[in-house]
Amino acid sequence: MSDPWSRRSLLAAAGVFVAGSAHGQPVDGRIKVEIRTQMGLIVLELRPDKAPITSANFLRYVDAKHFDGASFYRAAHPPGFPNVGLVEGGLQNDPARLFKPIAHESTLLTGLAHKDGTISMAREAEGTATADFFICCGDAPYLDAHPDTPGDNAGYAAFGQVLQGMDVVRAILAMPTSSEARNPVMRGQILAVPVPILQARRAA
User: Which of 107, 173, 192, 193 qualifies as a FRET site for 75, CA 20 to 30 Å off?
Assistant: First the structure.
Protein backbone atom coordinates (compact mmCIF):
# COMPACT_ATOMS: atom_id res chain seq x y z
CA MET A 1 0.00 0.00 0.00
CA SER A 2 1.39 3.41 -0.94
CA ASP A 3 1.59 6.16 1.66
CA PRO A 4 -1.90 7.72 1.81
CA TRP A 5 -0.64 11.20 2.75
CA SER A 6 2.30 13.42 2.05
CA ARG A 7 4.46 14.53 4.99
CA ARG A 8 3.51 18.16 4.46
CA SER A 9 -0.28 17.62 4.52
CA LEU A 10 -0.10 15.28 7.51
CA LEU A 11 1.44 17.72 9.98
CA ALA A 12 1.29 21.19 8.50
CA ALA A 13 0.71 22.68 11.94
CA ALA A 14 1.33 21.76 15.45
CA GLY A 15 15.27 28.71 22.87
CA VAL A 16 16.85 25.57 22.08
CA PHE A 17 16.69 23.63 25.34
CA VAL A 18 19.00 20.85 26.44
CA ALA A 19 18.18 19.76 29.98
CA GLY A 20 21.03 19.42 32.42
CA SER A 21 21.42 17.69 35.71
CA ALA A 22 19.12 20.21 37.38
CA HIS A 23 16.23 18.54 35.58
CA GLY A 24 17.40 15.02 36.31
CA GLN A 25 18.08 14.23 32.68
CA PRO A 26 20.61 11.39 32.26
CA VAL A 27 23.15 11.39 29.49
CA ASP A 28 21.85 8.08 28.17
CA GLY A 29 19.26 5.44 28.98
CA ARG A 30 15.51 5.41 28.60
CA ILE A 31 12.86 7.25 30.63
CA LYS A 32 9.23 6.30 31.12
CA VAL A 33 6.42 8.84 31.26
CA GLU A 34 2.81 8.13 32.19
CA ILE A 35 0.09 10.21 30.53
CA ARG A 36 -3.25 9.84 32.28
CA THR A 37 -6.32 10.74 30.24
CA GLN A 38 -10.05 10.44 30.78
CA MET A 39 -9.94 7.46 28.42
CA GLY A 40 -7.10 5.62 30.16
CA LEU A 41 -3.36 5.45 30.70
CA ILE A 42 -0.66 5.83 28.05
CA VAL A 43 2.89 4.86 29.06
CA LEU A 44 5.76 6.21 26.98
CA GLU A 45 9.41 5.24 26.79
CA LEU A 46 11.54 8.22 25.79
CA ARG A 47 14.94 7.88 24.12
CA PRO A 48 17.27 10.60 25.45
CA ASP A 49 20.14 8.38 24.35
CA LYS A 50 19.01 8.83 20.72
CA ALA A 51 17.12 12.16 20.75
CA PRO A 52 18.49 14.14 23.72
CA ILE A 53 17.18 17.59 22.77
CA THR A 54 13.65 16.46 21.98
CA SER A 55 13.38 14.13 24.97
CA ALA A 56 14.69 16.82 27.34
CA ASN A 57 12.19 19.30 25.97
CA PHE A 58 9.27 16.91 26.51
CA LEU A 59 10.48 16.15 30.03
CA ARG A 60 10.73 19.84 30.78
CA TYR A 61 6.99 20.18 30.12
CA VAL A 62 6.32 17.04 32.18
CA ASP A 63 8.40 18.22 35.14
CA ALA A 64 6.80 21.68 35.04
CA LYS A 65 3.37 19.98 34.97
CA HIS A 66 2.47 21.98 31.88
CA PHE A 67 0.78 18.99 30.26
CA ASP A 68 -1.67 18.72 33.18
CA GLY A 69 -4.91 20.10 31.78
CA ALA A 70 -3.70 19.94 28.18
CA SER A 71 -5.50 17.65 25.72
CA PHE A 72 -5.42 15.37 22.75
CA TYR A 73 -7.23 17.50 20.20
CA ARG A 74 -6.53 15.96 16.79
CA ALA A 75 -7.26 12.57 15.22
CA ALA A 76 -6.02 12.39 11.63
CA HIS A 77 -6.36 9.48 9.27
CA PRO A 78 -6.52 9.33 5.49
CA PRO A 79 -9.87 8.69 3.79
CA GLY A 80 -10.55 4.98 3.63
CA PHE A 81 -7.91 4.13 6.26
CA PRO A 82 -9.70 4.61 9.61
CA ASN A 83 -7.24 2.55 11.64
CA VAL A 84 -4.01 4.33 10.67
CA GLY A 85 -2.89 7.90 11.10
CA LEU A 86 -2.00 9.87 14.21
CA VAL A 87 -3.38 11.52 17.30
CA GLU A 88 -1.97 14.87 18.37
CA GLY A 89 -1.92 16.54 21.75
CA GLY A 90 -0.33 19.39 23.62
CA LEU A 91 -0.88 23.04 24.41
CA GLN A 92 -2.24 24.34 21.12
CA ASN A 93 -4.58 26.80 22.82
CA ASP A 94 -2.37 27.77 25.75
CA PRO A 95 0.64 29.71 24.40
CA ALA A 96 1.41 31.19 27.83
CA ARG A 97 2.61 27.74 28.96
CA LEU A 98 5.02 27.21 26.07
CA PHE A 99 8.79 27.19 26.38
CA LYS A 100 11.04 28.36 23.55
CA PRO A 101 11.20 26.21 20.38
CA ILE A 102 13.86 23.55 20.12
CA ALA A 103 16.33 22.51 17.46
CA HIS A 104 15.14 19.81 15.09
CA GLU A 105 16.58 16.30 15.58
CA SER A 106 16.34 14.51 12.26
CA THR A 107 15.65 10.80 12.13
CA LEU A 108 18.80 10.56 10.02
CA LEU A 109 20.78 11.64 13.09
CA THR A 110 18.83 9.81 15.80
CA GLY A 111 18.35 6.53 13.98
CA LEU A 112 14.74 6.45 15.18
CA ALA A 113 11.84 5.91 12.80
CA HIS A 114 8.12 6.57 12.76
CA LYS A 115 6.66 3.17 13.58
CA ASP A 116 3.36 2.12 15.12
CA GLY A 117 3.30 3.74 18.56
CA THR A 118 6.14 6.21 17.94
CA ILE A 119 5.85 9.58 19.71
CA SER A 120 7.20 12.53 17.76
CA MET A 121 7.09 16.33 17.76
CA ALA A 122 4.66 18.40 15.75
CA ARG A 123 6.18 21.41 14.03
CA GLU A 124 5.83 23.91 11.22
CA ALA A 125 9.28 24.85 9.90
CA GLU A 126 12.42 23.22 11.27
CA GLY A 127 13.24 24.50 14.73
CA THR A 128 9.67 25.52 15.63
CA ALA A 129 8.62 22.53 17.78
CA THR A 130 7.48 23.41 21.30
CA ALA A 131 4.98 21.31 23.26
CA ASP A 132 2.67 19.67 20.73
CA PHE A 133 3.38 16.03 19.96
CA PHE A 134 1.78 13.16 18.07
CA ILE A 135 1.59 9.39 18.34
CA CYS A 136 1.60 7.23 15.20
CA CYS A 137 -1.05 4.61 14.60
CA GLY A 138 0.62 2.33 12.10
CA ASP A 139 4.05 2.64 10.52
CA ALA A 140 4.62 6.06 8.95
CA PRO A 141 7.94 6.14 7.05
CA TYR A 142 6.79 9.25 5.15
CA LEU A 143 7.29 11.17 8.44
CA ASP A 144 10.99 10.31 8.55
CA ALA A 145 13.59 12.57 6.95
CA HIS A 146 13.94 12.10 3.16
CA PRO A 147 16.67 14.48 1.96
CA ASP A 148 16.35 13.20 -1.60
CA THR A 149 12.82 14.60 -1.96
CA PRO A 150 11.83 18.21 -2.75
CA GLY A 151 10.30 20.69 -0.31
CA ASP A 152 10.35 20.27 3.46
CA ASN A 153 12.10 16.91 3.61
CA ALA A 154 13.54 17.05 7.14
CA GLY A 155 10.79 14.87 8.59
CA TYR A 156 9.69 14.99 12.21
CA ALA A 157 11.60 14.37 15.42
CA ALA A 158 10.74 10.92 16.77
CA PHE A 159 11.87 10.54 20.37
CA GLY A 160 10.15 7.55 21.96
CA GLN A 161 7.59 4.78 21.84
CA VAL A 162 4.31 3.82 23.50
CA LEU A 163 4.88 0.90 25.87
CA GLN A 164 1.30 0.64 27.09
CA GLY A 165 -1.98 2.18 26.05
CA MET A 166 -2.13 1.91 22.27
CA ASP A 167 -5.73 0.81 22.79
CA VAL A 168 -6.34 4.27 24.27
CA VAL A 169 -4.53 5.95 21.37
CA ARG A 170 -6.57 4.01 18.80
CA ALA A 171 -9.78 4.83 20.66
CA ILE A 172 -8.90 8.53 20.38
CA LEU A 173 -8.16 8.08 16.66
CA ALA A 174 -11.68 6.68 16.21
CA MET A 175 -13.44 9.59 17.93
CA PRO A 176 -15.73 11.96 15.99
CA THR A 177 -14.12 15.03 14.45
CA SER A 178 -15.41 18.45 13.51
CA SER A 179 -15.48 19.99 10.04
CA GLU A 180 -14.08 23.21 11.52
CA ALA A 181 -10.36 23.96 11.92
CA ARG A 182 -8.25 27.11 12.15
CA ASN A 183 -5.74 25.50 9.78
CA PRO A 184 -7.47 24.36 6.55
CA VAL A 185 -5.13 21.37 6.31
CA MET A 186 -6.61 20.05 9.56
CA ARG A 187 -10.26 20.36 8.51
CA GLY A 188 -12.06 17.18 9.50
CA GLN A 189 -9.24 16.18 11.88
CA ILE A 190 -9.96 18.23 15.02
CA LEU A 191 -11.77 16.24 17.68
CA ALA A 192 -15.33 17.38 18.28
CA VAL A 193 -14.66 16.82 21.99
CA PRO A 194 -10.95 16.94 22.97
CA VAL A 195 -9.62 14.30 25.35
CA PRO A 196 -8.20 15.99 28.47
CA ILE A 197 -4.76 15.04 29.74
CA LEU A 198 -5.29 14.76 33.47
CA GLN A 199 -1.64 14.32 34.39
CA ALA A 200 1.77 13.57 32.86
CA ARG A 201 4.55 12.34 35.15
CA ARG A 202 7.83 10.45 35.01
CA ALA A 203 7.37 6.81 35.96
CA ALA A 204 9.69 4.41 37.72
Answer: 107
Paired with 40 in beta bridges are 37
Model pLDDT for residues 88-114, shown as the tens digit of each residue:
999 986 888 999 999 999 999 999 999
The predicted-structure confidence for 19-35, as pLDDT tens digits, reads as follows 333 334 444 589 999 99
Of 33, 88, 87, 34, the C-alpha closest to 56 is 33
Indicate the domain borders of the chain: 7-203
CA distance 75 to 27: 34
Count CB-CB contacts under 10 A for residue 81.
Answer: 13
Q: Cβ of 128: how many Cβ atoms within 10 Å?
A: 14
Assign domain 7-203 to a CATH class. Answer: mainly beta
Q: What is the pTM of this model?
A: 0.85
DSSP-assigned letter for residue 56: H
